[in-house]
Structures are given as structure tokens and as C-alpha cells.
Batch of 4 targets.
Target 1
Amino acid sequence: MRAGMARLDVAARNIAGAATSGDEAYRPITAVQESTAEGGVRTSLSERSPAFTSYYDPELSGADANGMVNFPNVDTTSELIDGMQASLTYKANASVLRTAGDMAGTLFDILG
């Protein structure tokens, strides 16, 4: 469940930072998940590579001497989809835990 929350947090941060530009542009991150030998999931965060995309717009205040402006390498549609997937995964895991608790309670009632 922590892995799902980490993915949701990353998507929210990336979406929030997507509108920044220039020298103060947000550096987007990526959540990398991998299975563990114990059957769980480990999540690590890393800076997205490339972190920025550059566009020519000399009118913007963050433009360099060549008129290029850095924007975070964030696709808001992909981030929204990843956030929704993370949310649904979290809800599914919570439902499994709730059902397991209900089943254990029923078993104790039968044995009790």
C-alpha cells in the first residue's frame, strides 16, 4: 500500500510542478517499483532523465541568452493516468485487507 501512495505522491508532485519554467523549473521524479524476495514491493524515487525539455521563447523571463526556456519533462496526461492507477491499486489492496479481516473474524466466530 505504501508503494501505491508513493506513486500517487510522485504523480501529484509532477503535475504541480509542470507549470514551472526557466532556472527555477521543477525537476520531475519517477517512482521505480520492484518486487522483493519477501513478496512485497520496494519503491525508489529518482530524478527523471531528461529532466527538462527546452523550447525557444525569448519573451519568457526564464529564457537563456539563446532564447531557450527549460520546462519540466512532465506529460500531465500520463501523470494523471498513473495517479488514477495508483489510487485504484491502493483501494484494491485496502479491500483485500478488509476482506481478510472479515474472513478471520468469521473463522474465529465459527471456532469460538
Target 2
Amino acid sequence: MPGDLAARQMIYFFRRAGDTRTCETRFAPKGLGYELVVTEGRRSHVEVFKDPQAMADRQSELRYDWLVRGWRDATPPDEIEDDE
């Protein structure tokens, strides 16, 4: 079901000096494995995995690399909670 598929996607946002990077995990469209969609500025590429652990390891590798290079986790503006 599309709703189930959407619920299993994960997107991480990173920001540095006004630039944004994202890392999105999702099921492959035809149901054969997994995809890691990496967007850096206006460029995106898709890495395909058959094994979910391999995808999770790659995602962790990217996130760690970005964090040590000064990128910071960022919450999308529409998900920021207002404390008032």
C-alpha cells in the first residue's frame, strides 16, 4: 500500500551556511531492494542496495562524514514545533 511505503521512508536534512543536503532512504520503486537518494545542492544521485544493512551502513557513513565536515542536522521548517 502506498501509505505503508511512505511511512517507511526516512529523510535526513543537513544544513551549512545556507546550503542543504538530504539523505533519503526508501524501498525501490519495483520492490526489489532499497534506494538511498543523496541530494547535494541541486544534484541528486541514487544508490541501490539489495541488503538493508548495507544501505544503513552507507547512510551512517554519509551522515558521519557530513557532520565532521561541519554540516548540521536540520529539521524541515514545516516540522518545527512552536513553543508558544
Target 3
Amino acid sequence: MKCYLFIDESGDPFFFGNRNKLLFGTDGFQPYLIIGLIQTKDRKVLRMPELSIIDYLIWAVQRKLLKGEGRYFEALKNKYISVLNLYELS
């Protein structure tokens, strides 16, 4: 059976600027790239406005990482299947 994905992101997927200049640590660069994913077998689900909840879930993670404010993340933590830090996996 086919599987359909909805993927959303927050952060900056670009680590290098013009002439391969490293952007990490410069003003305005966000050191996190956060990706949210919803998997479904029903293609119609991908058109539902309720998918905007993924934006809020990602925002809650982002707020905890960047500002140290964990109240939104803590209120929703049972809604996340997993939160991975890829830098800690190696």
C-alpha cells in the first residue's frame, strides 16, 4: 500500500553563502534545521488545514532550543514520536 508524506521545516537549510562562505555564527543565521514529518496512507489527509499543527510543534522545539523556553514543548511532548539531534548520533 502507498504511503504519503507531509514534510515541513523550520530553520536555515543553507550553511554556506556566496563563494562557500560559512554562515554558521553570523548574524541572522539559525543554527538549527528542524524537520517535521507526518506519514499517512490517506492522500486526502495531506490537504487538510489541520496539518498546520506541525508548524506549531516545530515552533515549540525551536523555541526551546533557541530561547530555552520549554513550556510549549513540555505541554506537547507526548505528541512527538521522536526528537533527534543528528549531531549527537555520531
Target 4
Amino acid sequence: MLLDINSILILLGIGLFAGVVNTLAGGGKVMDWRLHFPIQTNNRCFLVNWPSNFGTPKDIGEEVTTNMANFKSGNAYLLNTSMMHCATNYSERERIHLIASCDTSAIKNFSV
């Protein structure tokens, strides 16, 4: 597993916006999975997933059903980042996660 520099800086408390996390391994291989370890979070932080058939929103607007999850501190979460998603924080308190990017072959050895 690789830790990207943005994840390390966030863990250290350096105020860097990490809206985009590098998903390429050194050789350019796409790493579609992320392990999230919430360090500091709250009940107003959410991960939002869109349906797999979601495309570009229509100009006239449309109703889209999303799934929302609240990652709790003290747990680990495996996220398939090849699916459209985003994180939101409706709190004034920073959301801090340690994030490890993984490729598909690495997660085959994981168990619950």
C-alpha cells in the first residue's frame, strides 16, 4: 500500500486542502481502492455515492438518488473510488482521515 503526500500532511495537521488524492502508482497503474482510517470526524461528515448510471446532470435539473455514509473514528473503511463519489463536511471542525490507496490485487487478501 502507498500513502500519498496529501494524506500524510493531513494526518500531521498541516492545513492543506486535499480534495484530490493521487490514484496512480509509480508506474501509472490506476489504484481504484482506498482504505480510510478516520482520525477526526463528526456526525456532519458524509461520503456521498452516486448511482452507477449517473452521468452529466441535465441543464433543466433532475432528481438523483444518492447513498450517504458517515465514517466513524476508530474504524477502517474500504472504498471503491472508481465509482463517482465525494466527501462533504457540514461542520466547522476539520475532517481528518489517514488514506491508503490500493490496487485491486491488493484487496483480494483482505478479510472482514
